[in-house]
Amino acid sequence: MNQTASDNAEEFGFRQGDLVQEWLWDDDVDDSIREKIEKLTNEDLVDEEYDSAVDGAIIWWRDGDDEDELSDTIVDAYAVLGDDGPLWVLTPKPGREGAPSPSTVQNAAKTAGMNAATPLTVSDDWNGILLRAFGKGR
User: Fold this and answer.
1) What is the spatial distance between Cα 18 and Cα 23, in angstroms, rounded to a whole number?
2) H or E segment at 103?
3) Which has the closest alpha carbon to 89: 104, 97, 80?
4) pTM: predicted TM-score of the whole model, two decimal places
5) Tell me, what DSSP letter sits at residue 101?
6) Which domains does the chain have, with CATH numbers?
């Protein structure tokens, strides 16, 4: 059963002052999610070109994109996370345009050496899946 997002984005595990990197942004993303994260952290999101350490990351993922690219993006995003910060893959909900099959994120995460949690509802149209490195508890 999916959990439901809060109004203030605390479910992402980000805190005030955290620098969060955003990967694979496109014009179909849910700006309300971005705004909630920026309000919570009091920092602007940085894009995938940012090359210093960050405190967390979100990856926007849609069906039709190359699954190998998702694995590579997960590896790249994890490489710049400090202290094992939260790493989320955001996907359109089932039934929405671009919704991937449930196994797509699971398989890409496994290929990248990560475990994928149960999806969390983060907006009306998007789910979030928290990833953790194998052997890392929370």
Assistant:
1) 16
2) helix 102-111
3) 104
4) 0.90
5) P
6) 3-7+15-133 (3.40.50.150)
Joined together, the tokens standing for residue 103 give: 């196994």
Helix 67-79, helix 102-111: angle, nearest 10: 50
**In angstroms, rounded to a whole number, what is the distance separating the alpha carbons of residues 12 and 117?**
12
Q: How far apart are CA 129 and CA 120, in angstroms?
A: 6
Question: Cα–Cα distance between 72 and 82 in angstroms, integer?
Answer: 18
Continuous segment of H or E residues that includes residue 35: helix 31-41
**What is the per-residue pLDDT across 40-93, written as a single tens digit (0 to 9) for each?**
999 999 999 998 999 999 999 998 877 788 999 999 999 999 767 899 999 999
Q: Which two tokens stand for residue 7?
A: 């109004």
